Amino acid sequence: NHYLHKAPENVYNFVKPHSPEPSQQANRPKISRLIRAKSAKTTRELVRNKKEPVPQVTDKVLQLFRTKRNFVQKNVLDVMKSEPVESESVKFIDKASGDTQLLKSSGLIPVYKEKKEFGQVPDYIIKKAREKEEKARRIDEELKASLRNRDNQLSETDRLLILEGLKTNWSQAHQTYQHLPLLIDTVAKKQRKQKIETQLHELERYINVLENHSVIYISDY
């Protein structure tokens, strides 16, 4: 059996290769419509971004201030008044092969001793010394204030009595020290001699404190 197909009314109305489906082709906007929409959008942007018109001949235009200063003459005067710059490119030849070296950094001319701060105490050391003195003075004032508030000052009578007793003890210890044997050949003799010497040094230190200081406070610590 042979099946016969009816030919379409328009033989050229068929889907061509690489073409969209008929449904998509129907929904696609026409090119002329897109061109009109794009041109309308461009026109609106041009109207929105329109620049100001060119001023007319009759319009009053604000002119910039023109100075009468002669900049050429000013530059000439500045150059004449300026001091010459010292060149650091002075070199000398120190070898027969012609090797050159900068004269300023070679050590052949005095540089550091010509400075103003040469041989002077640096500022940071002076600052540290002042801070140390200020701290010592503040501690001394606080100590004096704390002792002044206490009623524990040693009276002059007690000071003299203690001083007299210390001198008596020193005389006795000194007399004992002089009676030591000349030959110190045992451990006991060495220990006794060392003990008497330590006692004499302590008594001398206390005597010097009482003799050199007339005002003495007794601490509770």
TrEMBL record:
Question: Which Pfam family, an example, fits this chain?
Answer: Enkurin
Gene Ontology cellular-component annotations: acrosomal vesicle; axonemal microtubule
The entry's localization annotation reads: Cell projection, Cilium; Cytoplasm, Cytoskeleton
Q: Which UniProt keywords apply?
A: Cell projection, Cytoplasm, Cytoskeleton
Q: Tell me the InterPro entries matching this sequence.
A: Enkurin_dom, Enkurin_domain-protein
A single GO molecular function term of this UniProt record: calmodulin binding
Q: What sequence ranges are listed for the domain Enkurin? A: 126-218
Q: What is this protein called?
A: Enkurin, TRPC channel interacting protein [Pelodiscus sinensis]
Please name the gene that encodes this protein. ENKUR
